[in-house]
Amino acid sequence: MIEVDIQHRLGDFALDASFSTPVGVTALFGRSGSGKTSIINAIAGLLRPDRGRVSVNGAVFFDTDKGIWLPPHKRRVGYVFQDARLFPHLSVHQNLRYGGQHDEARIICLLGLQGLLERQPNRLSGGERQRVALGRALMCDPQLLLLDEPLAALDGPRKAEILPYLEALRDTAEIPIIYVSHAIAEVARLGTSLAVIRNGRVARVGPLEEVMADPASLALLGRADAGAVLTAVVQRHDSDDALTEVACAGGTVLLQGKIGQVGARLRLRVPAQDIILSTQAPAGLSALNALPVEILGITEGDGPALAVSLKAGDERLLAQISTRSARAMNLSVGSQVYAIFKVTAATPDFGQGES
Ligand SMILES: Nc1ncnc2c1ncn2[C@@H]1O[C@H](COP(=O)(O)OP(=O)(O)OP(=O)(O)O)[C@@H](O)[C@H]1O
């Protein structure tokens, strides 16, 4: 359990953030300048807040009321930055061992570093460098891992290469991870909890699927980023049409290209703005996905759009439609409709599960 409650003034910027999240990956998501890095710097001890308290699994890092302040090196926190910050004169193996040798064999295997150990950092790709930085942080035996935009400097293919390693880390690590990002696709793929940071405050926090399916997320995350996350299992690949068929709680969904191995579990983010609602099963439409859903709620937003909360099996979808459409279609809570979307809308951005 991570418990954060900090207040701090940085020039004109006021940080006033509090959240508590269970073990897993807590994604801190927000625009540039919203205060994400300041929050994790306070957790790491690189920034000393004016007031507050931070504890991780019961270990108190600081508590201004009780006069507790642990210096950074006593917090056992692993920190990975956007740029890997490896020592250029040391080999990969020497870089890994710089802070410790905790669980070395397993970490090298988990991050696929076996073939890289004797290389110098200047002979690594950006993705490989980040894997080494992750390994180095883990070999210090941290009780908390802080990842500050670790993929931001990488191009699409390099992101695709490193994401499965981060997923493996999430699924096997026994320590909490805080993952800072302003890329919703990464957050949706890796997070277990989501804290939305706005103007130095935590605007919303909770289990990732719940926050992303909440109609309020339309205003909170913005039109381009709002959209619920479905869990899917790969059923088969259709090489003739270059499609992947996956099973979700609400029915079968088709994705573009060959995604994952048969049997692999995926997370699909379906953007709210990409869903079309229909009162009838679609015919004569090019969109290939049409899930039967029930309307759970219709929420007015700031503008002319409505957020429609949908039940697909035992999962949630979120659609954004115009007030005029809702009126013309006579939509109401309890209506059975179809959620229609193109294969591209649900296809993960970075070749999910290809490893
Ligand atoms: N030392 C400082 N003095 C004054 N203002 C600062 C200082 N450090 C950061 N800020 C301001 O605090 C705010 C939050 O910065 P922070 O780096 O925490 O945001 P962020 O969400 O991590 O942004 P990014 O995604 O761009 O890294 C910004 O408005 C920034 O300009």
- SSE pattern, N- to C-terminal: EEEHEEEEHHHEHEHEEHHEEEEEEEEHEH
**Within the largest sheet, what's the order of strands?**
7-8-9-3-10-11
- Average pLDDT level: 93
Helix content: 10-25%
Q: Name the CATH superfamily assignment of the largest domain.
A: P-loop containing nucleotide triphosphate hydrolases
Bound ligand species: adenosine-5'-triphosphate
Oligomer, anyone? single chain
CATH level 3 topology of the largest domain: Rossmann fold
pLDDT under 50 segments (min length 5)? Answer: none
What is the C-alpha radius of gyration, as a whole number of Å?
22 Å
CATH architecture of the largest domain: 3-Layer(aba) Sandwich
Number of strands: 20
Keywords: ATP-binding, Cell inner membrane, Cell membrane, Membrane, Molybdenum, Nucleotide-binding, Translocase, Transport
Pfam families: ABC_tran, TOBE
Domain ABC transporter: 1-224
InterPro entries: AAA+_ATPase (IPR003593), ABC_transporter-like_ATP-bd (IPR003439), ABC_transporter-like_CS (IPR017871), Mo/tungstate-bd_C_term_dom (IPR008995), ModC_ABC_ATP-bd (IPR011868), Molybdenum_import_ModC (IPR050334), Mop_domain (IPR004606), P-loop_NTPase (IPR027417)
Please outline the helices and strands.
Blueprint: E1 2-10, E2 13-21, E3 25-29, H1 36-44, E4 51-56, E5 59-63, E6 68-69, E7 77-80, H2 92-97, H3 104-110, H4 126-138, E8 144-148, H5 156-172, E9 177-181, H6 184-190, E10 193-198, E11 201-207, H7 208-213, H8 217-221, E12 227-238, E13 243-248, E14 251-256, E15 265-271, E16 276-278, E17 289-300, E18 305-312, E19 315-322, H9 323-329, E20 336-341, H10 343-346
Parallel strand pairs: 3-9, 3-10, 7-8, 8-9
Antiparallel strand pairs: 1-2, 1-4, 4-5, 5-6, 10-11, 12-13, 12-15, 13-14, 16-20, 17-18, 17-20, 18-19
The chain binds adenosine-5'-triphosphate (ATP).
